[in-house]
Fold this protein.
Amino acid sequence: MGRQGILIVVSGFSGAGKGTIMKELLCRYEQYALSISATTRAPRPGETEGKEYFFKSQEAFEQMIADGALIEYACYVNHYYGTPRAYVEEKLKEGRDVILEIEIQGARKIKEQFSDAVLLFVTTKDAKTLKERLVKRGTEELSVIEKRLQRAVQESEGVEEYDYLVVNDDLDLCVSQIHSIIESEHQKTDRNREKIKKIREELKGFSKGE
Ligand code: 5GP
């Protein structure tokens, strides 16, 4: 691809549609690699090992922490979630833009370690839509939905720590907006220091009559 991959964090309230957005983004564009997290939560119907998550026992997850195999991890509504290190490092090296679909504590840890990571926050247009989506999805019991909504209140306090806010009202538009944001990030002068240096040296050569 000839350019440095960007580490992209996508967070959002539970039910904001992050999973669907990620699927669509990966389907439309080849430049992205989606990190698969490890978790101690049980698979939902239809979820398979290694596709949505690597499903771990608490002991196995704690062993990954001890081995330094996770870039970050967090506890979310009574379960551990973490990002395996090896895949992220490998894909970034290959020049792919690596997406981490993680919650806010993890996002903060990523920003501490990778200052040039881009942080996006996805929301529905209002809270009512969020609750409706969670209930309609039907993958969690009502008590868990309540906990996830309480967690959303806490997360809403941290949205300003993200670089971009994306509203998922129209899926198509939302995916295009995310892709445009990332493409614009690639054009930032900070990310193109080598190119700028090269052109500057070439121009200096011309002005010396080379
Ligand atoms: P879910 O159980 O709905 O799949 O995920 C619950 C929350 O955990 C979501 O906000 C999701 O973004 C977050 N999450 C998933 N994987 C990771 C991870 O590797 N690290 C962190 N910090 N959060 C994660």
Remarks:
- Residues 23 and 85 are 21 Å apart (CA to CA).
- Residues 7-35+97-207 form a domain with the Rossmann fold fold (CATH 3.40.50.300).
